[in-house]
Each structure stands twice: as C-alpha cells, then as structure tokens.
Automatic annotation (TrEMBL):
CDD domains named in the record: SDR_a4
GO cellular component, one term: cytoplasm
Taxonomic lineage: Bacteria, Pseudomonadati, Pseudomonadota, Gammaproteobacteria, Oceanospirillales
Top-level taxon of the source organism: Bacteria
Record-given protein name: Nucleoside-diphosphate-sugar epimerase
Gene Ontology MF term list: aldehyde dehydrogenase (NAD+) activity
InterPro entries: Epimerase_deHydtase (IPR001509), NAD(P)-bd_dom_sf (IPR036291), NAD(P)-dependent_oxidoreduct (IPR051783)
Matches recorded under Pfam families: Epimerase
Organism, scientific name: Halomonas stenophila
Domain NAD-dependent epimerase/dehydratase: 6-166
Length: 290
C-alpha cells in the first residue's frame, strides 16, 4: 500500500516536496486555493479553503500531513487565519477521524526568535519575538507540540532559490549592505526545504523517533555584506550604493542546525555559495564567458 501524504498549502516548497515523495512511491495530494496549478505535476490537486470546516471534512485521509501554508498578506489577521487558526482546525478535523495521521509536520519560521545581536540560536533558545508574525507562528507551533497527534515543527530560515532572487537583483543594481556592523543572515535553499521535509518524513515512516522541533538553516550563517559581495563578484558588477540592511528591521542571529545534521540530513547546498551558484546558473544571471 502506498503512503498518502497530504500537503496543505502546496505552493513552491510543497510542489518540490511532492515531486520527491512521488519519486519515492508516495501518493501525494496537494491542497491549495487554485488546484489547477498542480496540473502535470503528478500531485493530486484539491482546491479548498482551510478556514471552511466543510471543505476540511472533504479532504482525504492521509498517513502524513504537511502544513506549509502561506498567509495572504503580511498583517495580523491574515497570519492568525493562516497559522494558529488554520493549523488548529486541521488538527481538530484529523484527530477525529477513524484513520488518524501517523505524523503531522508544521513549517514554521525563524521569525519566532527575538535575538538580534549575532547570538547563536538553536531549538532550545528562547523564542520570544516581539512581532505579531513571530508570535502567531509560535502559537501555531505550540498547538502542534501540545496536540495528541504526533507532530514535528520545522523552522526554516530565509528561503531562496529559483524565482526567489531579490538579493541577486539588488546586487545587480550595484546595491550592497554595509560591512559594519556585521548583520548575520541565515538561509536555506528551496530544494533543501523539500529535502529536509522528505528526510524527516522518511524517518517517521521508518518508525524512528523525531524531535518535536528542528531548526532548518544551512551550515554557514554569514554577514549579509559578505553574501552580497560574493554575488557581486559572480555577476561582475561593482558596488555603487550602500543600502540599509533589511535585517535591521528584524534580527541578526546565527542559526545552529546541529540537531538536523545529527538526524542524518546532508544539505544539497551547505552554504550560500553552492546555492546561489545554482540560482545564478539556472536563472540566466551570469554573463557568458568568452
């Protein structure tokens, strides 16, 4: 019998994950607002409003649930609907079924951390964000951790990859973050997001124990200035403007992924260099060599 994985919020990361799971022999059902976007992926698309109990009731039973929903807007109401309220509704629906899921995964964010002075953070660090986004993510995390269904939270840092190229375009315009003070940035390639989830799903299906929380970020937290300077060299452009680091509005911290590595995961793109090299190449950003 094939395992059925239900991906709730099956966008870019969910679709990439779904393709991996299909290749591993899963049946994959993807739920999103416009299911037509999953045509030709092999994923069974379902259109549903996760805020509608009737729509939830019509979703199929599943061995595994992956909740990777995105908020409609960056405001408190949208975040509450997408994260704590949406996840709680899904947990209530599936906990009441005759065939309950074997494991539930919730994709969270490092926005739950308040640290901003270059501190190292891991799964045991305080997560006391002052912003509504981090607070509501944390509420959703706790809803899963405290629920009777077996569940695991995966906190992703800054996601980049194909189509997520804002930083490259800034550098291409000659704009680079200041060198001082050092503002640490953390990132994970879209393909590693899918890889981490597929890895943890495999462990769950093999009956191996999982922690309730994993911090998923690559192996090299790096000052944003250094990342952008490296990109400038690849693009063969000179910096003409120093920009205010966007990290100043959030935080400067260093994410420690030791727990994830100890679980056996090996990063496809262990640092920004390998990952951005792929994005530059695939996105056609590099000048042809002569």
């Amino acid at each position: 019998m094939k395992n059925t994985t239900l991906i709730l919020g099956c966008g870019d990361i969910g679709t990439t994950l779904g393709r991996e799971l299909l290749a591993a022999g899963h049946r994959v059902v993807g739920v999103r607002r416009h299911a037509g976007k999953l045509a030709d992926t092999g994923i069974e698309g379902r259109a549903a409003d996760l805020g509608d109990p009737a729509a939830l009731a019509e979703l199929p039973d599943a061995d595994l649930l992956v909740y990777v929903v995105s908020a409609d807007h960056f405001d408190e109401d949208a975040y509450r609907a997408a994260y704590p309220d949406g996840l709680k509704a899904v947990l209530a629906e599936y906990a009441g079924r005759r065939q309950a899921p074997k494991h539930v995964f919730f994709v969270s964010s490092t926005s739950v951390y308040a640290q901003q002075d270059g501190e190292v953070v891991d799964e045991t660090s305080p997560a006391d964000s002052a912003g509504f986004s981090g607070q509501l993510m944390r509420e959703a995390e706790q809803a899963l951790i405290e629920h009777a269904l077996p569940g695991t939270v995966v906190r992703f840092s800054g996601i980049y990859g194909p189509g997520r190229d804002r930083l490259i375009r800034q550098v291409g315009e000659g704009r680079i973050a200041a060198a001082t003070p050092a503002m640490y940035s953390n990132r994970i390639h879209r393909d590693d997001c899918a890889g981490v989830l597929a890895h943890l799903i495999g462990r769950a299906l093999a009956g191996e124990s999982l922690h309730e929380l994993y911090l998923a970020s690559d192996c090299e937290p790096t000052p944003l200035h250094e990342v952008m300077t490296w990109l400038a060299r690849q693009l063969k452009v000179e910096a003409t403007e120093t920009i205010q680091s966007p990290l100043r509005r959030r935080a400067s911290k260093r994410c420690d992924n030791a727990r994830l590595l100890e679980s056996g995961y090996r990063f496809r793109y262990p640092s920004f260099r390998e990952g951005y090299a792929q994005v530059l190449r695939e996105g056609g950003f590099l000048q042809p060599t002569t």
